[in-house]
Amino acid sequence: MSFLNGLNPVLQALLATGFTYGVTALGAAIVFLFKRVNRKILDIMLGFGAGVMIAASFWSLLSPAISMSEKLYQTGWFIPAAGFFVGGIFIIAGDRLLNKCSFDDLADYQEHKAHHEPGSLKRCILLVTAITLHNIPEGMAVGVAFGGAASMLTGSDSLGAVLLAVGIGLQNFPEGASVSLPLRREGYSRRKSFFYGQLSGMVEPVAGVIGALAAFTMESILPFLLAFSAGAMIAVCASELIPESSKSNKNLATFGITVGFLVMMVMDVALG
Fold first, then answer.
1. pLDDT at 117 over 50
2. Distance between CA 79 and CA 75 in Å, rounded?
3. pLDDT of residue 86
4. Cα Rg of the chain, angstroms
5. How far apart, in Å, are the Cα atoms of 84 and each of 61, 226, 231?
6. 72/153 Cα distance (integer angstroms)
7. Residue 81 — pLDDT band, cuts 50, 70, 90?
8. 8 Å CB contact between 30 and 214
9. Residues 80, 223: contact at Cβ < 8 Å?
10. Residues 256, 92: Cα–Cα separation, whole Å
11. Residue 132's Cα: distance from chain center in Å?
12. What percent of the chain is modeled with pLDDT above 70?
C-alpha cells in the first residue's frame, strides 16, 4: 500500500483498472479451456462482486461524497443525492437504448441468422455491448475513488479504492466468460471469442484515467462524480449482476452477495 500511496492518483487509477481489465481477459480466456463453466461458481462470484460493489458504493464513494459536500457547500446532501440519481438514470437509459437497438443490417447477423436459432447472435451482440457499456462507469468509479482519495477533503485514503477495484475485478471474471463462451457456442473461433470477451473490458482503464483526472483536477465537482459513480454501480448491480447471479440459484447468489458486502464492510471500516 505504501508503494501505491506514493504514486500519482492517475497512475494509481490506471494500474487498478489495468487489473480489472486483466481479470476480464482472464475470464474470457476460459474459452480456451472449457466449453462451459460451472454455473454455481459463476453465480457465487457474480454475487460476491455485487456485494463488494454495493458496500463500496457507500463506504468508498457515497460517504466521502457526503463528507466532502458538507465541507464545500451549505447543504451537504443535495449534490450527492443528485449525483446518485443521475448515475442510476444513466444506466437505466443505457439499458433502454440497448433494448431498442436493431442489428438486422449487420453482416454477421445476416450470416448467422440462416444457420442458428433466431435472435441468438443478436443476444450475444447485445451482451457484449451491454457489458462494455457498464464497464465504463465501473472504470470511472475506480478512477474517481483514487482521485477522491488524493483530495484532503474526502477524508479517505486509497485503501477503499483498492478494495473497490478488487471487487470490480472479481465480478469481471465471470463477465469475461459470459461474453466469450456464448460467442463460442455461436460458432466463433476460440481466438475470436476471447478477443471480443477481453475487448469488453478495455474501456475500464480509459474510463478510470478520465475519472481520476476529473476528480483530481476539478475538486469542486468531486462530490457529484463520486455519487454519480455510486449510483451507476448500484444500478448495474440491480439490473445486471443480481438478476444474472440469482437466475439459476438465488441462495448461492444471496450467499455471495452477503459475504461480499461483509468482507468489503469489515475491511473498509477496520482498515480504513
1. no
2. 8
3. 94
4. 19
5. 10, 8, 4
6. 9
7. very high
8. no
9. yes
10. 24
11. 9
12. 78
Instruction: Quote the cell numbers at residue 73.
Output: 457547500
pTM value > 0.90:
no
**The pLDDT value given to residue 16:** 92
Cell, residue 207? 474510463
Task: Choose the weakest-confidence range: 51-65, 178-192, 207-221, 236-250.
Answer: 178-192
CA dist 141 and 44 (Å) reads 23
Q: Nearest 5°: CA angle at 114, between 121 and 107?
A: 60
**pLDDT grade for 102, boundaries at 50, 70 and 90:** low
